[in-house]
Every structure is written in C-alpha cells, then in structure tokens.
Design goal:
two-stranded antiparallel sheet, 14% strand, 7 strands, Nucleotidyltransferase, domain 5, 13 helices, alpha/beta
Amino acid sequence: MHRKVTGLVATVVEITSEVFKFDGQSRLDTFSIDLGRCSEVEAHRLQLAMEGIRKNVDSFPFWQRRKRVGRPSSDERTVMIGFLIQQLFRTTFRDAEGLLHMLKWYFKLDHVPDHSVLCRAMSSPRWTSLLERFFSFVMTSLPKRNVIVATDATGYSGRKRGWRETPYAFRPREDWVKTHAAIEVDSFIVLSYELTASNVHDSQVFSDVWERLPKNVAPVRSLADSAYHGEACLAAARLHGATPLHKIKKNAKGLMEHRVNYNKLVFFAKQFPQRFAALTAKRNHAETVFSMIGNLFDYRTRCRKDDARKNEVRCKLIMFNLHQLAVTGLARSL
C-alpha cells in the first residue's frame, strides 16, 4: 500500500498475524543481570581471594623437611603464598616480595623470602609435586556432586601474541605450555588438567585428564569439540559414567547399528539436531574459563625454564579456582 505525502511516497507494509504462528520446536533463552550484585562482587574480589589463599594454605599439610645443618630453608607456606599473590596481582617476583612485606601481618609471616628464592623454587621438582597436591587438596575439599564436564585445551608462553591470536598451523612449532583441562559447567572451575608440549594433540591427553578428575565428582555428561570425536575419547568418557556429547565433523557418517560409541553419537546428532545442539550448548564454557584466566592473571608466563613455566601455569589454575570459589561464595550469600 502506497501513500503520497507532500510529494513523497511512503510504503506501509502490513504484517498479518499468520507470520507469528510457529510450528514445531521453538525456544527462547533470556537472562538478567543485577548490577548491584556485580558491583558488590567486584568490590570484594581481592579481599575474598586473599582470604581464600590464607584459609587453604593454613589447612594444607606441607610436610616440610627441616635441615639439621647449614642455612635453614624457606618456609614452604610462605613461598606458596608468594606464588599465589604474584598471580593474583599479576606482578614479578620482585614485586611479589614487596607485597609479602606489606601483607606480612595478614598472613602471619615470620620471614619474607627474597625474590631470588621464589624464582628458584618455581623451577624445582619439589614444588611441582607441592602444587599438584595443593590443587587436588582444594578440589577434594568441595562437596560431592554430579557435574557436566567440558574439555578443551589452550596454551601459555612468554610471547606477546596469545594462543587464540596464533594461527593454528604455527602453534605446534612454538614453545607453548599446552594446558588440557576439564571444566565444570556453570561453576567455571578447573577440575583437572595435564600440561604437555604444544605439538601434542588434544585427543591424546583426554583420557589422562579424565583419570585425574576428583573423587568427589560424578560426571554425567562430557562436552567437547570435534577434536575429541574419536572412539578412544568417547570410550574414556563412558568409562567414567558420563554420556559423551562431542561435536562431530560436518561430513561424519555413522552406521545404523549402534555397535560403537561413535556410531551412537553420529546417529543422535543427525537424527535429533535440535536436541543435540541444546545439550551441547555449554561446550564453550571451557573457552570462557581460559579467557577468564588470561584476563585475571595474564595469558603470558614470566619464567624461561620449562619446569618453571609449567609450575607458573599450575599457579594460575590454582589461583583461578580459589578466586572463582571466593566470588561465587559471595554471590550466593547476597
């Protein structure tokens, strides 16, 4: 219908009510954000994170061996606090030493070690074992629960260009500390991890990551991208009692007989695409966690030795879990 107004022609389009009548499956997801709660969480973020550090470090058994002769070794509790404070404030070892002097009364420290002590401890095999035990200690202190696990991998290095900005073909040839991690969906907590070289494919470490899942979680569903669509990855998830819903290739073809896990996955994805998409929609929570770690504690490592860089990544994962538990704990109390 056309209308002429002062020499101009206006077109009026009338939409009938039949357009708004939908047939089949339709769904609308919405969410709301309370800005007051977000501001409250952000205001107390550092305070609660430091309280989480103090609470977990005080209850963790270090089993430190005391020397009978020579200079006494540095207190491992103090060194652990220094590592976590360095990641929380994204500082160097020198600045971490200064922060420990400032927070000496808060953490009840008798002696603050030199920054060179922190640097040497970061590359020692002793601290590799301690950081892994501390990560497991934090995870096992949580209650038993059923979880949906999202698995993915990312990389950390001292380069200015991050993992996501690096072309896929260049990643295996660079000196990344590749982190394969299992993420708890909705709570954004790192349940387990494996650190490898950059040329190790994601599917090769999937079973190892799932073997290190905490004993107090029962996985009910496994979410992953198409790098984990192989039969070995699907069987590993089935072994732990989870239903594998991994993304498949566009040209994937499966047999009608449900003899293997891969055929079951392809059949379900092809026959029920909307249901499959709804169940796997939160697969990107793993990438969200990697982005949060990079924004909070930096995506680059400061150390140069291979063992030290891996321990630094372990500190990032530990500090992220402590930070996430502290923030979500405040959000529930509001």
